[in-house]
Design brief:
- The chain has 5 domains: 222 residues, GHMP Kinase, N-terminal domain (Ribosomal Protein S5, domain 2, 2-Layer Sandwich); 70 residues, Arc Repressor Mutant, subunit A; 218 residues, Ribosomal Protein S5, domain 2 (2-Layer Sandwich); 63 residues, Ribosomal Protein S8, Chain: A, domain 1 (2-Layer Sandwich), CATH 3.30.1370; 72 residues, Nucleic acid-binding proteins (OB fold (Dihydrolipoamide Acetyltransferase, E2P), Beta Barrel).
- The chain is built from 17 helices and 29 strands.
- Helices cover 31% and strands 30% of the residues.
- The chain is of the alpha+beta class.
- The radius of gyration is 33 Å and the shape is elongated.
- Its cofactor is Mg(2+).
- This is Polyribonucleotide nucleotidyltransferase.
- Belongs to the polyribonucleotide nucleotidyltransferase family.
């Protein structure tokens, strides 16, 4: 007997979104069996019964599981089992996390896991979007405390027109890839990649998504009203009023303000350390307070910084609200690499290194997106512990590093030259030397300069900056902060990152800690970031390197491309690869041939590249009577000489055609190894014979 369940559906962007509740995963706190077209995702929300001991943060975990069976593929590798999460899965988990996290109670310490299992994929219906909606629904109907629901919509722009939740084909040609999450009142998350979209157009797209989100939230509210569980009570993590009062008595407000009011991160940390030690000594006999002291001091700092900014209009380092920290830029700081640059903004410093390689070395992608199998431009970001004065072992890139790298990658993709114009795979690596706020935006600036230094003919310069926010009691009580440092990020309400050229936006990533932003805040942040990135380009980046270099580094591989008929690929490769291997052995180049006949020849010696190209042209050329060609004598017989016109293509010069005068012996005119000029007299395609002449009277 089948299990009874409730099913809800709505039309969303011309396709049916269906949600089954109570059909599967009944033991989870909340479960939504999501169907968008033929895309199917199981979204669940679970929470522990008790708070986790000894932590001062909300332990939320978000998972997005890609199963290859969802697209009818077998996993690669020996075990034929999915391995670690792909970058797409990690980035999707982050996009789900960002709008959800602020809607949980700030003092909630129970472990919560949001899991999304992709079961099938319809190319017309994004599994990532389906999972975002599924997590919101599963949490909203669960008994887990949650101030939702929220909803998410994707917007594309094809031919100048917005497309809601574009399918895979539309997304491939879209000038905009925008994801917006909203509550019923405000926008709560924005992520975008764009082809230089003007500010006004981006704002229009954001609020088109917001209007769709409101329709989805009304749909979710109906589901919650029918099947939603009562939210459970929980043990709140709070600082006792007695402890807060005692701290303020020992450390007055003006003393805390003096401790945090400095532009040097290390000095501030020393000041807070001294205050904490003084409080530990004062509370030595109150063991129950000592375990809460770290969080109590943190909260005191937070309130102090927010008051200074919002009420006193003072930033911790003394800057004006629109002021950017001191800027510096250098290129070519690393010898022998293909391109390098360093960008410094206050105590944030990124060194970027660019490597160029043949297109055959582009990253191969094995995931659920069946239309994208390779990635030509790769941006990777590293964040070592020394950059923030800490010591911990390196365990490889985490979700934060992957997210920062992806943001900087999106920022530069719109200005990269087409592969036909610049046939290279490009790897850009950002090494964080020092961090105090918005290293991803410094990575964007440094990678742009490193690409230009490497001779990559990017279309325009790109820069990025982050805008922060501190809010008060009402929607119109807020302060925007240009170029936030770490302290303002930790204690503030928003990290709104925008990259772009002088013409428009190329990427956005918005993280907030509050329940959404008003339209005025969104518009103000975008405008503030535009003004700041123009300033960075004009005053710092352009004086360092104004345009891409005309030549690539002498250490980078040179690449030549020729197009041959696909039917000639076998001739170039030769039997068991003998022909192509001989070319590689003789010239030292690397040769890659695509299925459509595009041949890429790469190496560091231009003369050898040219030689290899000439050989390939010779192999693939259609030899016709009347052609004048260069060749090498490879064999002598009594009646004539055989001349190699190209690997595997020999022609014969009869003894009577060696010279205008009578020739007694072939050896009197040529010897093996001679380079000679010949004319094609006759081509017998059936017999595969080519007759040649060396007679000057024929060649003239």
């Amino acid at each position: 007997m089948s299990k009874e369940f409730k099913s809800y559906s709505m039309e969303l962007a011309g396709r049916i979104l269906r949600v089954d509740i109570g059909r599967v995963a009944a033991q989870a706190n909340g479960a939504a069996f999501m169907h968008y077209g033929d895309t199917t995702v199981l979204s669940t929300a679970t929470a522990s019964d008790k708070p986790r001991d000894g932590i001062d943060f909300f332990p939320l975990s978000v998972e997005y599981e890609e199963k290859m069976y969802a697209v009818g593929k077998m996993p690669g590798g020996y075990n034929k089992r999915e391995g670690k999460a792909s970058e797409n899965a990690i980035l999707t988990s982050r996009v789900i996390d960002r709008p959800m996290r602020p809607l949980f109670p700030k003092d909630y310490r129970n472990d919560v896991t949001l899991n999304n299992l992709v079961l099938s994929v319809d190319p017309d219906c994004s599994p990532e979007l389906t999972a975002m909606l599924g997590s919101a629904i599963a949490t909203a109907i669960s008994d887990i405390p949650f101030d939702g629901p929220c909803a998410t919509t994707q917007i594309g722009m094809v031919g100048g027109f917005f497309v809601v939740n574009p399918n895979e084909e539309q997304m491939a040609v879209s000038d905009l890839k925008l994801t917006v999450a909203s509550t019923k009142d405000k926008v709560i998350m924005i992520e975008a990649g764009a082809n230089e979209i003007p500010d006004e157009k981006m704002i229009e797209a954001i609020y088109k998504a917001d209007s769709v989100n409101k329709e989805i939230i009304a749909f979710i509210d109906k589901i919650v009203a029918e099947v939603g569980k009562q939210k459970h009570s929980y043990t709140a993590f709070t600082i006792p009023d007695e402890l807060s009062a005692a701290i303020r008595e020992i450390v007055p407000q003006d003393e805390m303000e003096k401790a945090v009011f400095t532009d040097e991160k290390q000095i501030r940390e020393e000041n807070i350390k001294a205050i904490t030690e003084k409080l530990e000594e004062a509370f030595a006999d109150k063991e129950e307070w000592l375990s809460l002291l770290g969080e109590a001091v943190y909260q005191y700092q937070k309130k102090t910084v927010r008051k200074m900014i919002l009420k006193d209009q003072k930033r911790p380092d003394g800057r004006a609200m629109t002021q950017i920290r001191p800027l510096a830029a250098e290129v070519d700081i690393i010898p022998r690499v293909h391109g390098s640059a360093m960008f410094t903004r206050g105590q944030t410093q990124i060194c970027n290194v660019v490597t160029l390689a043949p297109l055959a070395e582009a990253q191969k992608i094995d995931g659920l997106n069946q239309s994208e199998t390779t990635k030509r431009y790769i941006h990777q970001y590293n964040f070592p512990s020394y950059s923030v004065g800490e010591t911990r072992p390196s365990r490889g890139p985490g979700r934060r590093e992957i997210g920062h790298g992806a943001l900087a990658e999106r920022a530069l993709i719109p200005v990269l030259p087409a592969p036909e114009e610049f046939p290279y795979a490009i790897r850009s690596v950002s090494e964080t030397f020092e961090s105090n706020g918005s290293t991803s935006m410094a990575s964007t600036c440094s990678s742009c300069m490193a690409l230009m230094a490497a001779g990559v003919p990017i279309k325009k310069m790109v820069a990025g900056i982050s805008c922060g926010l501190v809010t008060g009691e009402s929607d119109d009580d807020y302060v925007l902060l240009t170029d936030i440092q770490g302290l303002e990020d930790f204690f503030g309400d928003m990290d709104f990152k925008v990259t772009g050229t002088d013409s428009g936006i190329t990427a956005i990533q918005m993280d907030i800690k509050i329940h959404g932003l008003t339209k005025d805040i969104v518009k103000g942040a975008i405008a503030r970031c535009h003004e700041a990135r123009d300033f960075i380009m004009e005053t710092c980046m352009k004086p360092c390197i104004a345009e891409p270099r005309k030549e690539i580094s002498k250490y980078a591989p040179k690449i030549a491309q020729i197009q041959i008929s696909p039917s000639k690929i076998g001739d170039v490769v030769g039997k068991q690869g003998k022909t192509i291997n001989k070319i590689i052995e003789d010239t030292g180049v690397k040769i890659d041939i695509s299925e459509d006949g595009l041949v890429s020849v790469s190496g560091t010696d231009q003369a050898m590249i040219d030689k290899a190209v000439d050989i390939i042209r010779g192999i693939t050329i259609e030899i016709e009577a009347g052609m004048i060609m260069q060749g090498k004598v490879v064999r002598l017989l009594e009646f004539g000489a055989f001349v190699e016109l190209a690997p595997g293509k020999d022609g014969m010069v009869h003894i009577s055609k060696l010279s205008d005068r009578r020739v007694e012996k072939v050896e009197d005119v040529v010897k093996i190894g001679d380079e000679v000029t010949v004319k094609v007299i006759k081509v017998d395609a059936i017999k595969g014979r080519i007759d040649l002449s060396m007679k000057p009277s024929d060649i003239i």
